[in-house]
Amino acid sequence: MEAITVKGNNHGANVRRWREWRNVKQDVLADSIGVSQATLSSYEKKDKLDQEILVKIAKALDIPVEAITEIGEGSSISIVNAYDNSGSINYSPTFNPIDKIIELYDKLLETEREKVKLLEEILNGRK
């Protein structure tokens, strides 16, 4: 099969960058595309990869093939996955998680206080 040539990008380096960005080890990706870790390592050193290999890798990393073939060497990868957000986790939220826990605790505490007040009223009404 013929290798794809698009914008002179280094496919192997882009595969490595996407693999690392996805936090996937070489042996895990290699296993998921049916090759050895050594073979995957050799792919990551090649300038161009065959279309068949690109498709397998892109599918395993859950990215479009163009993400490998069209990203330039100087580009940084900080892309929101618009294809499937089911596995997305935001590791840098825009809020302080501790503040959210405190907020939830305060709501729970207020609810419990309301319950106690209501129960006191019921008990006082029975006397």
Tell me about this structure.
The chain is mostly helical. The chain contains 6 helices and no strands. The model is unreliable at 1-7 (pLDDT under 50).
Helix and strand layout, with pairings?
Elements: H1 11-21, H2 26-33, H3 37-43, H4 51-61, H5 65-69, H6 97-126
Radius of gyration: 26 Å
Main beta sheet: strand number and arrangement? none
Q: Can you count the beta strands?
A: 0
Our count of helices gives 6
Helix content: 55-70%
H-E string: HHHHHH
Mean pLDDT: 81
Alpha carbon gap, first and last residue: 90 Å
The percent range for strand residues is under 5%
Structural class: mainly alpha
| Low-pLDDT segments, ≥5 res | 1-7
Task: Give a summary of the structure in a few sentences.
By secondary structure, the chain is mainly α.
